[in-house]
């Protein structure tokens, strides 16, 4: 049985990278980009994504694997340096039953909250000015 995926007429991550929708892009290279998410579930919460559209982790090309993991590690180090959290949470979901909401593979990287963990459930989105400020705080540490 194939993985059940969220539906989307357009991929918002691809639109961000193409400049079709506004986003705080912390870094964009040939293979990988790091975006500051508007839904901050932890301190300095970013998304690490392949530049090429890949729906799930199973679709990532072999040549992209090391670039993704390198970017995840660099994002974690930047969050640790910028926020000095008690921990770093990294998660990645594949398919609607696993709570994937955007059909483009992405790794969440966030500093844990002062009481531990990250925030789940509904949270209000930040505006672009706020995510740009987070990007400014993280950028010197990449």
Describe the protein.
It is built from 3 helices and 5 strands. The protein has helices at about 10-15, 60-85, 130-140, and strands at about 25-30, 30-35, 45-50, 90, 105-110. It has a 5-stranded antiparallel sheet with strand order 1-2-3-5-4. A hairpin with a 3-residue loop joins strand 1 and strand 2. About 25% of the residues lie in helices and about 20% in strands. It is of the alpha+beta class and about 140 residues long. The protein is globular and about 40 Å long.
Helix and strand layout, with pairings?
Blueprint: H1 12-17, E1 24-28, E2 32-36, E3 43-50, H2 62-83, E4 88-91, E5 107-111, H3 128-138
Antiparallel strand pairs: 1-2, 2-3, 3-5, 4-5
Helical content, roughly? 25-40%
General shape: globular
Looking at the chains present, what oligomeric state does this protein adopt? single chain
Low-confidence parts: none
Strand order of the largest sheet: 1-2-3-5-4
Mean of residue pLDDT?
Answer: 96
Specify the structural class: alpha+beta
How many individual β-strands? 5
Radius of gyration: 14 Å
Cα end-to-end separation:
40 Å
Proportion in β-strands = 15-25%
User: So how many helices?
Assistant: 3
Topology as a string of helices (H) and strands (E): HEEEHEEH
Biggest pleated-sheet summary:
5 strands, antiparallel
């Amino acid at each position: 049985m194939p993985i059940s995926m969220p539906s989307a007429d357009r991929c918002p991550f691809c639109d961000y990278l193409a400049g079709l929708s506004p986003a705080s892009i912390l870094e964009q290279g040939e293979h990988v980009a790091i975006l500051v998410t508007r839904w901050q579930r932890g301190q300095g919460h970013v998304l690490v994504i392949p530049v090429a559209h890949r729906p799930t982790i199973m679709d990532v090309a072999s040549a992209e694997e090391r670039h993704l993991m390198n970017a995840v590690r660099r994002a974690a180090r930047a969050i640790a340096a910028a926020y000095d959290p008690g921990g770093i949470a990294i998660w990645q979901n594949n398919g609607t039953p696993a709570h994937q909401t955007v059909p483009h593979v992405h790794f969440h990287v966030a500093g844990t909250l002062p009481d531990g963990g990250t925030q789940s459930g509904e949270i209000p989105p930040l505006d672009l000015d706020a995510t740009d400020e987070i990007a400014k705080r993280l950028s010197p540490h990449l």
